[in-house]
Amino acid sequence: MDxxxxxxxxxxxxxxxxxxxxxxxxxxxxxxxxxRTLEFPGWSREMPGTGAGGPVHAVPVLVHYDEEGNRTIGxxxxxxxxxxxxxxxxxxxxxxxxxxxxxxxxxxxRRITFRDAATDxxxxxxxxxxxxxxxxxxxxxxxxxxxxxxxxxxxxSIADAAGIRSWHTLAEPAAVxxxxxxxxxxGQGYLIIRWDETDFSASFILSEGASDQCPAGGPRxxxxxxxxxxxxxxxxxxxxxxxxxxxxxxxxxxxxxxHDKITGRIxxxxxxxxxxxxxxxxxxxxxSGTTFPARLSRDDVGRILTEHGFLSVFDRTxxxxxxAAISRGCKEVLPVAVIMxxxxxxxxxxxxxxxxxFEGVPVLSDHPLDAVARxxxxxxxxxxxxxxxxxxxxxxxxxxxxxxxxxRFLVRSGALYPSAGQVARITISAAYDGQTRLGIPLxxxxxxxxxxxxxxxxxxxxxxxxxxxxxxxxxxxxxxPLLANERTPTLLAADPPALKGEPRFELTFxxxxxxxxxxxxRDLVTxxxxxxxxxxxxxx
Length: 540
Known about the structure:
The protein has 540 residues and is an alpha+beta fold. 25% of the residues lie in helices and 33% in strands. It is built from 13 helices and 31 strands.
C-alpha cells in the first residue's frame, strides 16, 4: 500500500513498549478499535499471540555497527548471527536506565554510549512507523518505575526527531492493567510479574480509583523486587538439557557451537509449544554439516525450571516485594489477580507453575508479549479537561528552635499541570559555615487511605535527651513522607562557600506537561543563575 493510501486512513494512535529485549508498538484507531501490533518487515519478528489482535510483532532491541559505522537493526542483527558481537548494543534499556558508562565500538575511532544507541534505535523505528502511518495523531510511551529524571524528556526529543506531533507517557503498571482490559475498583490490589531477557520482577500495585490520567484505575506500585534470573538464563538451561539428552555434555568447540545454535533458536521451540505438547527442530553443526533433533516438551520446561531452583527465585522475589509493600504502609497485599507480562511469561509451563503458587487467585496471561503496548495504545491522554497531581510534595528542613524536621509544601494534591506559572518560591540557607553543596530534599506525602501510617522520627530535645516525634503540624497530613528524589538528588554548588543561616539560593518551581517538577535557582551572593528549569522529580 502506498503512502497516499495510508494518508486516507483514519487517524491512529501508537502505544510504545520499549522493553529490555524487544520493542512492541501497538496501533489503534482514535475510537480505540482495530488494535494490532505494528510490523516492520526485516526488523521485526512474528510471535504467536493469544486473544484478540492476532500475532505479536516485536523488534529485537539490537543495534549492530559495522567497521564503517553503518547500522543494522532488530531481526537483521539476529539473522546474520551478530547478536553477541562486541559492536552490537543489546539489552539497551537496562543499561540506559542504569546509566552505564560502557561504550560500544561504532565505526572508525568512534565509541558510543547506550543512550546514543537507544537514540539511534528508537529514532529509526519511530521514523519508519510515522512514514508508514502519517495520519498518526499521538504516541504514548510506557515508562517503568524510578526512571532517571532525564528519561521522559529524552523520549520526547526522540518523538520530535521522528516527526511525531503529540506524545505522552503512561506508567508501565497502568499500561499493563489497561492492556488486560481491567477496570479495578479503588482498593483492589494486583501482582504484576514481568519476566524479560535479563530480569525477573514482581510488583504489588494498588488501585486508587479512576483518575484523569488513568481511566483504568490509577494503579500505584506499593512494593517491588527484582532478580537477575532472566529469560537468557532459562534459554541456557534448556540448551544444556537438550545437549545432555543428546549425550553432548563434554566441553569443546563443537558443543559450544551447538549450544549457541540451540539458544539462537529457542524462540522456535517456544512457538511450537504454544500449540502442541512437544516441539522439535533440527540443529545443524555448521562445520560438520551433521544435523540432530532438539526436542522439548512442556513437561521438560517445568522440570528444567524446577531443577535450576526457579521456584526459590520466584518465592524469594515475591517475598521481597510483599515486604516492601508492607513497609510502605500497605496493609493488604493479597492480590485479586496475578498479571503476567514479558517474554518469559509467554513460555509454556511457566503459567502452570505460577498458578500452583497462587492457587485460587486468577492468573492473567493472555497478553504477555504486548500488554504494555496494548494498554498504551488504548490510553486516552485527553479523556479529561483537567490534569492534576495526586499527592503532596514538600521540602524538608530542620527547625533549630523546635529541634525537629518540618515541611515546606511546594505542590498540593489536586494541583493542575502544566502550571500556569510558578508553583512555589523559596529561599534556602546553609546548615553550617563553609558548606559548598546545598541539596533539595523533596518528599512525597501520599493521600491514599492505606498510607496513613504515622511517620515517627528520633529527635533531640533542648535538654539533650532523645524522644520520638510525630510529623509536625505544618506537614498537614498523617501520611508517611517518603524521600522522592533520593536516587537523583538535586544539588546546588555554592562558590564561594556559604555561611550558616545566610540566605544563599532563591528557588522557583514550575510543573511541565509531563508532571515534571522543575527548578530555577539563583545564587543570592553572586547574582548568577545556577540552574534554569532543571528537572527535580516527576510527580504522580
